């Protein structure tokens, strides 16, 4: 199965912020939408980074009183790992696991078209296993 299968189910809404916003702005966005990461884009919409809850916590650990006033540029992860809608879900799971990342933007020809989380991937894999088990039950019963 492909990433497109997940996008068809969950949708393609991706929340973005510019790197000049503050960590406080990012926290407000993450809380407002109950999400774990925000994609950071330049003025043209190109992906330049990703900011996760983990990135924010690490900054808070270093400077509890001043971290939220920092710009996103000082805390975000650069060199974002992306996939396309045609990437196999097993490959995405492998890359997320080996790189220890929880969110992967979906991009094509440099354009952000979605995002998948490890939760999306696990949910899909569970549904896939349940479908396979049902097919086997039906086969055995017939």
UniProtKB/TrEMBL annotation:
<keyword id="KW-0129">CBS domain</keyword>
<feature type="domain" description="CBS">
    <location>
        <begin position="76"/>
        <end position="131"/>
    </location>
</feature>
<protein>
    <submittedName>
        <fullName>CBS domain-containing protein</fullName>
    </submittedName>
</protein>
<feature type="domain" description="CBS">
    <location>
        <begin position="8"/>
        <end position="68"/>
    </location>
</feature>
<dbReference type="InterPro" id="IPR051257">
    <property type="entry name" value="Diverse_CBS-Domain"/>
</dbReference>
<dbReference type="InterPro" id="IPR000644">
    <property type="entry name" value="CBS_dom"/>
</dbReference>
<dbReference type="InterPro" id="IPR044725">
    <property type="entry name" value="CBSX3_CBS_dom"/>
</dbReference>
<dbReference type="Pfam" id="PF00571">
    <property type="entry name" value="CBS"/>
</dbReference>
<dbReference type="InterPro" id="IPR046342">
    <property type="entry name" value="CBS_dom_sf"/>
</dbReference>
């Amino acid at each position: 199965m492909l990433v497109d299968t997940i996008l068809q189910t969950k949708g393609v809404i991706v929340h973005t912020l510019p790197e000049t916003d503050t960590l406080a702005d990012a926290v407000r966005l993450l809380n407002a939408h109950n999400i774990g990461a925000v994609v950071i884009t330049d003025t043209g919409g190109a992906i330049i980074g990703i900011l996760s809850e983990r990135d924010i916590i690490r900054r808070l650990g270093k400077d509890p009183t001043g971290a939220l006033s920092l710009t996103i540029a000082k805390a975000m992860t650069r060199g974002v790992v992306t996939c396309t809608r045609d990437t196999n879900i097993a490959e995405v799971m492998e890359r997320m696991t080996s790189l220890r990342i929880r969110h992967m933007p979906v991009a094509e020809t440099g354009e952000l078209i979605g995002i998948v989380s490890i939760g999306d991937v696990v949910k899909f894999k569970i549904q896939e296993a349940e479908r396979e088990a049902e097919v086997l039950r039906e086969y055995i019963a017939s």
